[in-house]
Design goal:
40% helix, globular, 280 residues
Length: 280
C-alpha cells in the first residue's frame, strides 16, 4: 500500500527533527528493514501494525538491577536494588524446578501481536542499567540452567568507559550466552521532562549505538526510572522500538500496549519465598 500524504509528512517532520538533533531518522519510520553494521544472518526488524490487536497474555517479567554482594558502606538505595548472587541462584533454580520457561523478547512480541503460542508458564528475566554483574554473576547461573534474559543498557556509560558497566565485548559475550541486549536510553534521564527533540535523541541515539556495536536490530527498551507517559510511549514507537517495559506492577501484558509492559520488581529482600508469592 502506498504511503499516504499524512504518513509522508510524519516521516518528513520526524527526519527533520532528528537531523536537527544530529541523528538520522529511525529505520522503523523510514520503513527500512535493514540493520546497521554486519547484520547478515540476523533476525529482521520487527514492525508494529497500525491497528494493534486486542488480546492479553500472562507473562511475568522479572525486573532485576544488580546481582552482587553489598559491602556495609553501600548506599541504601543501591543495597535495596542488589540481590545477593546466592539468592539469585536459588530464585532461578526455583523457577526451573517449577517448570517456568524463559522466553525471548521476540517470542513475546509474536505472541502479543501475531498470536503465536508460548510455552507453558512463560517468563521474562530482565536486568536494568547494564551493570557488569549481568555478565559475571547472572549469566553463569542462567547459562547452566539454560535460561534466557535481557539486559537493558545505558549507552552513555559504555562510551564513558565506566568499569562498573558492560563493555561491548561483555555485551557480545552475553548474547552468545542467550542474554539479549536492550536499550535503557543514552543518559538515563527522566523522559517525561524532556522536549520531543531531547527525547528522540535518548531513544534513537541509544538504539542506533547498540545496533552499530552489536550488528543487529535492537528493539527492546526500558524506561529510565519507569518514567513515561502517552507522549513518551508514542515517541518510543516512532523511534523504532517494538516492546518497552515499565516499572508498573503486574503480569498481564496487553497487545494494545506493547510499549507499556508491566514487570515484577525483585529487590534484596524478595528472596525465593517472595518470588514464589509474586507468581502464585
Amino acid at each position: 500500500m502506498a504511503p499516504t500524504f499524512a504518513s509522508r509528512l510524519l516521516v518528513f517532520l520526524t527526519a527533520g527533527l532528528l537531523s536537527g538533533a544530529g541523528l538520522a531518522a529511525p529505520d522503523a519510520i523510514s520503513g527500512s528493514v535493514g540493520c546497521l553494521g554486519d547484520c547478515e544472518g540476523t533476525l529482521s526488524r520487527l514492525t508494529l501494525p497500525r491497528r494493534l490487536p486486542d488480546r492479553e497474555v500472562v507473562v511475568p517479567i522479572l525486573m532485576y538491577h544488580r546481582i552482587n554482594v553489598s559491602p556495609p558502606a553501600t548506599p541504601a538505595i543501591t543495597r535495596r536494588l542488589t540481590v545477593h548472587p546466592s539468592v539469585f541462584r536459588r530464585q532461578m533454580q526455583w523457577l526451573r524446578r517449577h517448570r517456568y520457561h524463559t522466553i525471548t523478547q521476540r517470542e513475546l512480541f509474536l505472541a502479543l501481536i501475531h498470536r503465536r503460542p508460548l510455552p507453558l508458564k512463560p517468563i521474562l528475566i530482565t536486568f536494568d542499567d547494564g551493570y557488569r554483574d549481568a555478565f559475571y554473576r547472572a549469566a553463569p547461573v542462567l547459562s547452566r540452567l539454560r535460561m534466557r534474559a535481557t539486559a537493558y543498557v545505558i549507552t552513555g556509560r559504555i562510551v564513558d568507559g565506566d568499569r562498573a558497566f558492560l563493555s561491548w565485548g561483555l555485551m557480545r559475550g552475553l548474547e552468545r550466552r542467550g542474554i539479549e541486549i536492550g536499550s535503557h536510553s543514552v543518559n538515563h534521564r527522566g523522559l517525561t521532562q524532556l522536549s520531543d527533540r531531547e527525547l528522540l535523541r535518548e531513544l534513537v541515539g541509544s538504539r542506533r549505538a547498540l545496533e552499530r556495536g552489536l550488528g543487529h536490530p535492537v528493539q527492546w527498551f526500558a524506561y529510565p526510572f519507569g518514567d513515561y507517559d502517552a507522549r513518551v510511549e508514542r515517541l518510543a514507537r516512532r523511534a523504532g522500538y517494538a516492546l518497552a517495559v515499565t516499572t508498573e506492577a503486574g503480569s498481564v501484558q496487553s497487545a494494545r500496549r506493547p510499549l507499556a509492559l508491566r514487570r515484577l520488581r525483585i529487590i534484596d529482600s524478595t528472596g525465593v519465598s517472595g518470588l514464589a508469592a509474586m507468581l502464585q
